[in-house]
Amino acid sequence: MRYNLLMRRLLFLIPILLVGCGLLTSPTPTPVLPTPVPTPELATPTSPAPTAKAATPSLSPISYSFLPVASGFTRPTLLTHAGDARLFVLEQPGVIKIIADNKVLPTPFLDIQSIVNSSANERGLLGLAFHPKFKENKFFFVHYSDLKGDTAIARYKVSSDVNRADPNSGEIILQIAQPASNHNGGHLVFDPDGLLYIGLGDGGGQGDTRGNAQSNASLLGKMLRLNVDAPNPKPEIWAKGLRNPWRYSFDRATGDLYIGDVGQNVWEEIDYVKAPMPKAILNFGWNIMEGNHVYKNAATGDTLLAPIAEYDHGASGGCSVTGGYVYRGKEIPELSGLYFYGDYCTGFVWTLKQTQGKWQNDLFLRTRFRISSFGEDVNGELYLVDHGGAVYKLTKGK
User: How far apart are CA 75 and CA 391, in angstroms?
Assistant: First the structure.
């Protein structure tokens, strides 16, 4: 999220977290670059995006709500699962807690506060992903800001106690220097093929002053892929042209990818890639485009992928998009196939669904939460993380 944006918006005297950036450090492996997609030098997106509506939710008169699951967390940033009934909640200062049987366990799963820098709004413990073979190898991965403020991706292992990680098992597999305290990205997700997707922001600065997002020489402003099981794994630039990818997910039914990318001054966007994931580098347009709109006139040899949805900071009052999930749970079957996402400042939650090749974007709920993330449990039920300290579950009825 954009701290500088909130400083201009006196309505929101709250800390915003999202996206950061940095320059490649010496420990960072040289990125492997697939062949870019050859196209004419056009800065025109492939298709227009529907604008988010600020209207009555389209699924009325049925009522839905987010009911509290647990509270008392310190700046929670993520909720996820490890392939079982437990829920794992990240706290920005550097702690992972477990919710089991509707109770928060008294002992943290992992506490790495001593090596995490959470002094800035967009730094801290930001991402967690369990290895696809977690039940066998007990590995999981975290994305955090180290004491210098740089990005660190580390692998940890669970101890003999399934509810406790071994804090001494940490092994850093990727480090990236960050020139600023914002636009640090922070998410980690494994795709259906077992590759780890690492989202990084453009490095901060108004309009990406360093030009990182469009440069193949920088890992910033990118979506990286990493084969964590390979010896000496090297990051591959899978996509560029991202300003601050804050929460992205693969549809567990189709494998399609949805990305929430935080905008600059006017437009927030949702990007989409249909499965299977292409091997050539994709370009989501920043800083040539902001959403579906030209931000800077510049020639490019890439096809710029247009967002499937966008909303502005004026009519909606929004400021920072939080990507979510396609609902695939069983408890509310009429919502199956809807992609949920929200805005950190307004607390609005929208849904997206593609019908006959067209995307329909509707306001689902108006909440008062500071939506730092959404989450899924093992059954595909949807959760919302309030940065103020609580997590909620989507439920039918009030």
Answer: 11
| CA 180 to mean position of chain CA atoms | 19
Number of C-beta neighbours around residue 155 at 10 A: 17
User: DSSP readout, 3-72?
Assistant: HHHHHH-TT--S----B-B-PPPTTSPPPB-PPBPP--S----SS--PBPP-SS-TTTTS-EEEEEEEE-
99-142 pLDDT, tens digit per residue, is 999 999 999 999 999 999 999 889 999 999 999 999 999 999 99
Facing residues of 361 across strands? Answer: 352
The alpha-carbon radius of gyration of the chain (Å, integer) is 19
Domains and CATH numbers, the chain: 17-32+39-51+73-317 (2.120.10.30)
In whole angstroms, what separates CA 191 from the centre of its chain? 14
CA angle 387, 238, 209 (to 5 degrees): 65
Encode pLDDT of 62-107 as tens digits. 699 999 999 999 999 999 999 999 999 999 999 999 999 999 999 9
Q: Please name the amino acid found at residue 212.
A: N
Residue that has been written with the tokens 């928060």 in this structure: 104
Q: Which two tokens stand for residue 158?
A: 């669970």
